[in-house]
Specification:
CATH superfamily of chain B: Thiamin diphosphate (ThDP)-binding fold, Pyr/PP domains
Largest interface: A-B, 51 and 48 residues
Largest sheet of chain B: 5 strands, parallel
Distance between the termini of chain A: 51 Å
Structural class of chain A: alpha/beta
Oligomer: heterodimer
Number of strands of chain B: 7
CATH architecture of the largest domain in chain A: 3-Layer(aba) Sandwich
Structural class of chain B: alpha/beta
Strand order of the largest sheet of chain A: 3-2-4-5-7-6-12
Helix content of chain B: 40-55%
CATH topology of the largest domain in chain A: Rossmann fold
Strand order of the largest sheet of chain B: 1-2-3-7-6
Shape of chain A: globular
CATH topology of chain B: Rossmann fold
Number of domains of chain B: 1
Number of domains of chain A: 2
CATH architecture of chain B: 3-Layer(aba) Sandwich
Number of strands of chain A: 14
Strand content of chain B: 5-15%
Number of helices of chain B: 11
Strand content of chain A: 15-25%
CATH class of chain B: Alpha Beta
Shape of chain B: globular
Radius of gyration of chain A: 20 Å
Largest sheet of chain A: 7 strands, mixed
Distance between the termini of chain B: 55 Å
Order of helices and strands of chain B: HHEHHHEHEEEHEHEHHH
CATH class of the largest domain in chain A: Alpha Beta
CATH superfamily of the largest domain in chain A: Thiamin diphosphate (ThDP)-binding fold, Pyr/PP domains
Number of helices of chain A: 11
């Protein structure tokens, strides 16, 4: 039987294998070693949720703790990338982009263009996204749309351990700046992952489930919410096709458009805030390029236009649920002109 | 003195400072004709700073600059032709006309770019220094920033990070007295930017930025310390700019005759010439020859820029990614 590991282990393994393969790969971020300078274990934490645990033991000084100074250390990773290293830097929660975004979107993203095509900035910024941790408004957002907006960045949103490993290895080898979004509720998810190194190209969607009635495009953890909805719908004789774009930039438009050409109906499930998010972007794409294929309006299932709340009673209402996805699917199926 | 000052070095220093001055004075004139687009921030008056620091550098050393970046680019060895063409927005520019004055860069020379974001270079230079350290080279990385940048979190964070990681980085604060129009006497709480060095556990010095020799000596000491694994330093260069924040700035925030007096009493080129001729190190004839050569060089750069074609429509969409599916 094939080996199963968790999403978190898959990420750790991807980094470890790339560090073994290429000595220019370094790891840095808050608590990434996790005990620097104290009297206890040097690598006590290995990342706030233990994702980089063990790397310091294997690779020593190529794994670094940093002060809580996101601008300085994310920027340093970017500068180091421009000077010949391949840093994998951790921005602990994507919500912290507010204190370092300049280095990402004005520096890393623009070097190549501003400098006339001469800069090479192979940096990976790993960052946690997503609600469901009861972590409230400043530790729960899905801000990948903000990064997707910026030319010069690539944005990766894996939904399974298999994809996480292959996409992260590809991201580390990629010569452009990549933002790698890890949904914190997926860390414990297990699936079959090959032990050997492999890559998944950026810009290739995955058809997670095939079906004829409705296309669902879902991102990150929402792929699993969509799958749960799909299983329940199947019992009612409704067969949905689930597309996981896996990267929001580049976006595999073709796979989405092909599926909509087949089903004629689209539901987009995006956990992020509803204005100017990936759901609106994909809806616009389909409206513009596949209007003739549509049998009903595109429906979007997203969080509401509010910050992520703390209380579980409210947060559970915030996060798109299988029930909401089911309703959306039925809505597009029942639409009649 | 950490590096011996010989005649050859003096000639190089004067040529570099003159090149920056001539370039900037000429851009000032050409900008007024309307032919140069966008924002231009001139470095004239501050030449001894870039020169005093960069004469210690090798090609493999890194420099991050500011929006007032022409002087640092020239001091790091950028070709005047492609630099001028970039400022004119021409295809033959060092960045193909896609960067302009605020983003002139040549990574092959270790010139990591002028920067449109005040304080933006601090973290980047920590990265360059980190790369040098990880690769076990003795290369150093220089972050030029202004009194305005000295108040940015990026710079303060970078000072701490560089100190914590003991990076071979030198932070050169060019305090020219004004962050745009706001006096550094008002906006820098400590008065001296160098006073902040102690807060980050690094050596700091204040030098007269009109005196090439003072800058050269302080920079030499810091750079040697960084090269030999002694960690980062902070140097505050007290200097003045002859022009406004940007071209077109009426400078009504400056005192009457302030610039006139500066030009009369605080001109690094005049001070340098006075000292080296008085000490019989160089002759006026030698310096006059450099003036004439540099004048021709800048004239050639302007002519090149003016006659160069602009980018084509097809250039709009290129150079965003190395590969994008």
């Amino acid at each position: 039987m094939a080996r199963k590991i968790s999403f978190k282990q898959a990420i750790n393994e991807a980094i470890a294998q790339e560090m073994g393969r290429d000595e220019t790969v370094i790891v840095m971020g808050e608590d990434n070693v996790g005990g620097m300078g104290g009297d206890g274990e040097r690598d006590a934490w290995g990342g706030v949720l233990g994702v980089t645990k063990g790397l310091y033991g294997k690779y020593g000084d190529r794994v670094m703790d940093t002060p809580i100074s996101e601008s300085a250390f994310v920027g340093a990773a970017i500068g180091a990338a421009a000077c010949g290293l391949r840093p994998v830097v951790e921005l602990m929660f994507v919500d912290f982009m507010g204190v370092c975004f300049d280095q990402i979107f004005n520096q890393a993203a623009k070097f190549r263009y501003m400098f006339g095509g001469k800069a090479v900035t192979p940096v990976v910024v790993r960052t946690m996204i997503g609600a469901g941790f009861r972590a409230a408004a400043q530790h729960s957002q899905c801000l990948y749309s903000l990064f997707t907006h910026i030319p010069g960045l690539k944005c990766v949103v894996p939904s399974s351990p298999y994809d996480a490993k292959g996409l992260l290895i590809q991201s580390i080898r990629d010569n452009d700046p990549v933002i790698f979004f890890e949904h914190k509720l997926l860390y414990g998810l297990e699936s079959e992952v090959p032990e050997e190194s492999y890559t998944i190209p950026l810009g290739e969607a995955n058809i997670v489930r095939e079906g004829d009635d409705v296309t669902i495009v879902a991102i990150a953890r929402m792929v699993h919410v969509a799958q749960q909805a799909a299983e329940e719908l199947a019992k009612e004789g409704i067969h949905v096709e689930i597309i996981d774009p896996r990267t929001t930039s580049p976006l595999d438009e073709e796979t989405i458009l092909d599926s909509v050409a087949h089903t004629g109906r689209l539901v987009v499930v995006d956990e992020s805030h509803p204005r100017c998010n990936m759901a609106t972007d994909i809806a616009a794409l389909v409206a513009q390029k596949a209007f003739g294929d549509l049998k009903s309006p595109v429906t979007m299932v997203s969080g509401p236009h509010v910050p992520v709340p703390f209380s579980d009673a409210l947060e559970d209402l915030y996060i798109p649920s299988p029930a909401k996805v089911k309703n959306a699917v039925k809505e597009v199926l029942e639409y009649a002109k | 003195m950490t590096t011996e000052i010989n005649k050859e070095l003096l000639l190089r220093a004067y040529r570099m400072m003159r090149r920056i001055r001539e370039f900037e004075e000429r851009v000032h004139v050409e900008f007024a004709t309307g032919e140069i687009p966008g924002f231009v921030h001139l470095y004239a008056g501050e030449e001894a700073s870039a020169t005093g620091v960069c004469l210690h550098l090798r090609k493999e050393d890194y420099v991050a600059s500011t929006h007032r970046g022409h002087g640092h680019c020239i001091a790091k060895g950028m070709a005047l032709r492609s630099m001028m063409a970039e400022i004119y927005g021409k295809k033959s520019g060092i960045c193909g006309g896609k960067g302009g004055s605020m983003h002139v860069a040549d990574l092959a020379l270790g010139m990591m770019g002028a920067n449109g974001i005040v304080g933006g270079g601090g973290p980047l230079i920590c990265g360059a220094a980190l790369a040098a350290k990880i690769k076990k080279t003795d290369h150093v990385a220089i972050c030029f920033f202004g009194d305005g940048g000295s108040n940015q979190g990026t710079i303060l964070e970078s000072l701490n990070l560089a100190s914590v990681l003991q990076l071979p980085a030198i932070f050169v604060a060019e305090n020219n007295g004004y962050a745009e129009s706001t006096s550094s006497r008002w906006a820098v709480a400590t008065g001296n930017i160098a006073d902040r060095g102690a807060a980050f556990g690094m050596p700091a010095a204040i030098v007269d930025g009109h005196d090439f020799f003072a800058v050269y000596e302080a920079a030499g000491e810091s750079i040697q310390r960084a090269r030999s694994g002694g960690g980062p330093s902070l140097i505050e260069v007290k200097v003045n700019r002859y022009f406004g924040h940007f071209e077109g700035d009426q400078q009504s925030y400056r005192g009457p005759d302030e610039v006139k007096k500066l030009r009369e009493t605080k001109d690094c080129l005049v001070l340098f010439r006075g000292r080296v001729t008085k000490q019989n190190l160089l002759t006026n004839k030698e310096l006059d020859e450099i003036d004439a050569e540099v004048s021709n060089e800048v004239q050639d750069a302007v002519a090149f820029a003016k006659q160069s074609p602009k980018p084509q429509a097809s250039d709009l969409l290129t150079d965003v990614y190395i590969a994008y599916a």
